[in-house]
Amino acid sequence: MADTEPDGLSPEDYATLCDFLRERTGLSFTEAKRYFVDRRVAARMQAVGATNLRAYLNLLRFQASGEELQRLVNLMTVNETYFFREKYQFDCLVKSALDELVRDRPKGSRLRIWSAGCATGEEPYSIAIMLLENWGRVDDYEIELLASDIDSAVLERAREGIYDERALQGLPAHLRAKYFQSLRGTAPAGGPRWQIIEDLRESVDFSLVNIADPQQVRGFRGIDVIFCRNLLIYFDDLGRREAASMFHDSLAPGGFVCLGHSESMSRMSSLFVPRRFPDAILYQKPVDGGAP
Amino acid sequence: MTDGPRILVVDDAVTVRAFGRRVLEAEGFVVDEAVNGIEGLERAMAVPPDLVIVDVNMRKMDGYTMLRVLRRDPVLRDVPAIMISTESKDSDREQALLAGANWYIVKPPRPEMLVEAARLLTGRPLGPEGAP
Amino acid sequence: MGLVKKKAGATPSGPAAPDAQVDRMADPLAALEDADASVRRDAAHGLGHAAPPGAVAALARRLETEGDAGVREAILTALARIATGEAAAALLPFLDREDAALRNGVLESLQQMPAEVAAPALLPLLGHADPDLRIFAVQGLGGLAHPGRADWLAAVMERDADVNVGLAAVEALAEAGSPEALSSLETLARRFPDDPFVAFAVDAARSSFRGG
Fold first, then answer.
1. What is this model's ipTM?
2. Which residues contact C123 (CB under 8 A, 6 or more apart)?
């Protein structure tokens, strides 16, 4: 518990940090979040070798790249995966990006969407539901949904597709009724359990992939859209640059990368051009396949 | 006070961005900042500026590349651009103009030159009578 | 059509690489010259993680002529990953290329190497005749966590004849500096007394580590 943490922040430090985060990011943390914030800040301070909070705050304030701030913010906002998380990006997919991608493609051709770092599967299943519900041309194309993670345990859960109430909170009732069946028994956290219907589970191809290993990524070719949200925050500068370069190679010309809401390609790679759609900014591999 | 022309300053140097902000805001311009070409494009796409001031050498996306992308964008293609650089050779100016710059300023920037160029390119009348 | 179903009983191993491509990867140095950009990119990336003798020279040679942006980036990250003195030295000649994207990508790779590798490569550039190369050297060195950093930046501010080189050092201090740099900052301000930008930048750097 908090009082056994030797490096926990003092109340003054905690208040300073929270003020800073609120001012710079709009994120606000109450005293109730104290333990949560403490642990993440302690982990980051250790990672960057900051011996006290003042040194760490200086880094957050003055680092030109803003990278450490981004990393901390992400750490504060992940672990909260659920269906339709950051839905505006899925809206962008079905309202804008896919239509652009298929503009010159004949009916019946293939579209490949890859959820990289899919964890327990909420993201790829959300994409599947969004496509079926909200993309009018879904039946005109053969859509391949790939999903990968480095963690075999979460992949197993993703394939099972069993979720508790919390994961489903963003889903309207009619979608819940259509794509989930309620299971007997209760979830580990209490409350009912729901399973994705078999038809949908068969529509996502899950695989164990370390995206830092080129051998393992080599099979991902001709991808049209890559979702990689809140994953690269765990990589260092060079690792992120390499991953972005690998995504670039996996994508078909004109293909898109979709990053988490607090991530930007401007901290990662020179290979993509930002594209602003009404719902979101995506990053595009230039249509001629070359440099931006 | 927020209705002056919008200027986006794209430079990886925090001192240059801060200087641009100080000098141009004093003249009634509204200033936004970005640290490289990609962020510059993101900002410009979010809120189209009336003028961009773009450094040449930046990591992730350099100024020439940013201007080339800008000039291909249907919404942003006509936004005037000042290129600002430490490089003062004729070939540097030429390269900037080819990439789509309308004006070239050699660093370090002089405040009066920055303001004059900004006024000309945003169509704001010269001199104090042009102030709001 | 619609969503494609997995085949029942298919192994959950993800999409397979084309066999031909796997074969060609047996000799990554040769694959670096393959006609297929994707093969070259994979070869470069692979060399970054396991560099046989000759890898650095082969990567640098390929960088000279490589026209594909993705392959070029893979070569730049591979050299940053190899991060030997040889790799750093191989990157230096590209810093004064006409192609701005290339020279900036190269500087980024140098910055992503450990300080003890990047510093010896960049230091001699502080004496180069071209101020733009000296600026790159200052930017590279200024971003390193190295015990020599403060002294290098101080020397630049006190002695470099080009105002923009001195300003690059000020910029590095504005990002991370300490009060020990004050006297060199003031020296720079005295050396270029009529430049309003110098006065502004020196002030900004000073207040960043005083106020922080």
1. 0.91
2. C137, C141, C152
In the 8-state DSSP scheme, what is residue A97?
Answer: I
Q: Is C107 exposed, middle or buried (0-12, 13-18, 19+ CB in 10 A)?
A: buried
Beta carbons of B60 and A269 less than 8 Å apart: yes
B10 Rama sector, left if φ>0, alpha if ψ -120 to 50, beta otherwise:
beta
Give the containing element (helix H, strand E) for B84: strand B81-85
A245:C73 CB<8 A = yes
| Minimum-distance CB partner of A276 among B37, B46, B61 | B46
Closest to C173 measured CA to CA, from C196, C199, C207: C207
- Mean pLDDT, all residues of chain B: 91
pLDDT digits (tens, 9 = 90+) for C111-120: 999 999 999 9
Instruction: Assess B45–A contact: CB distance below 8 Å, yes or no.
Output: yes
Q: How far apart are CA B51 and CA B79, in angstroms?
A: 6
Cα(A271)–Cα(C144) distance, integer angstroms: 25
Lowest mean pLDDT among B5-19, B54-68, B85-99, C54-68: B85-99
The pLDDT of residue C212: 45
> Hey, are the CB atoms on B19 and C132 less than 8 Å from each other?
no
Q: Is A270 helix (H, G, I), strand (E, B) or coil?
A: coil
C176 shares contact with chain A (CB less than 8 Å): yes
Contacts of A245 in chain C (CB under 8 A): 41, 45, 70, 73-74, 77
